Amino acid sequence: MVVLLTSVGQRVDIARAFRAAGAVTLGVDADPLAPALYHCDRRVIVPRIADPGYVATLAALREEHDVRLVVPLNDLDFPVLARERELLAPALVLLPDADASARMSDKLEAHHFFVANGIPSPRSWAPEDGPGDARFPVLVKAREGFGSRNIHRAADPEELAFFLAYTDVPSFVQEACLGEEFSIDVFSDMDGRCLNAIPRTMLLSKGGESIKGISIKDRELIEHGARVAEIVGIKGPANVQCFREPDGSLPITDVNTRFGGGFPVPLAAGGRYPELALALARGEKPQPRLGDFTEGVAMTRYFSEVCLAPDDDGVLQPILPLP
């Protein structure tokens, strides 16, 4: 089965995992130096997501390569491909419905949705709606941010006013959580049933990317992640980020409708998420197996590289065979 991985960027872990699961990987990106391109079986340079011809290019590739599964890997892709998924039919697009994708892409709208549906979430507000009893520190966050970009921590009202004036993207304000942070990597079928939820610790992150983490069999976190996934309407993978506060609550700060940055942890712990994705593309109905994974699987990341040189046609090719 051919799987189209969009905006592959640095997601070498995803490309390798789908190849190991038996898929033929077609990686696309606007940047010819995106390293994950060279870990895919096939690679194509495409227009940027904002280009009017982006989706049409993907649709042509779907037909040319007989793509059966589309796995978006960049947050900017989600509202676009969820809205235009019919153009990629009959390939299965591994995303929630358009409304859910758009809602989770706007972090303030996601907060309002959480509160309205009984999901705990840190107090959050638009800059003009700040309450008089805000508990500092607070975070000024981009409404459509990713990778921990455009997040500023304000210790008092003066710093808050400064950062609200400083930021150049639409933002909102959120009270900082006080407890330990966790990520829960979930995977749901196309009916919205959560098939598994694998919590992991957040031992170290850099630039929004998980560097070190350990899988944990915490029943409360497993059930919380599965509940959130089903209320949000997740289809395919998602990364649920939450804190365990001193009062025992588990406020959700973010739900990313993609494979999380710490994907190697649930993969090594036996989550088999690529295999589940391929099964969905074949029209199968895998059964939920919440809590079926190995506890204590640790990930520690390091930098690697791909060295390229132009061939006789000027096309960049890896100099050495890749693992």
Descriptive terms for the model:
9 helices, D-amino Acid Aminotransferase, Chain A, domain 1, 26% helix, four-stranded antiparallel sheet, 18 strands, 3 domains, alpha+beta, globular, single chain, Rossmann fold, five-stranded parallel sheet, 323 residues, Dna Ligase, domain 1
Structure description:
The protein is of the alpha+beta class and 323 residues long. It is globular, with a radius of gyration of 20 Å. The relative contact order is 0.14. The protein has three domains: 2-95, Rossmann fold, CATH 3.40.50.20; 123-175, Dna Ligase, domain 1 (2-Layer Sandwich), CATH 3.30.1490; 178-300, 2-Layer Sandwich (D-amino Acid Aminotransferase, Chain A, domain 1), CATH 3.30.470.20. Helices cover 26% and strands 27% of the residues. α3 runs antiparallel to α4.
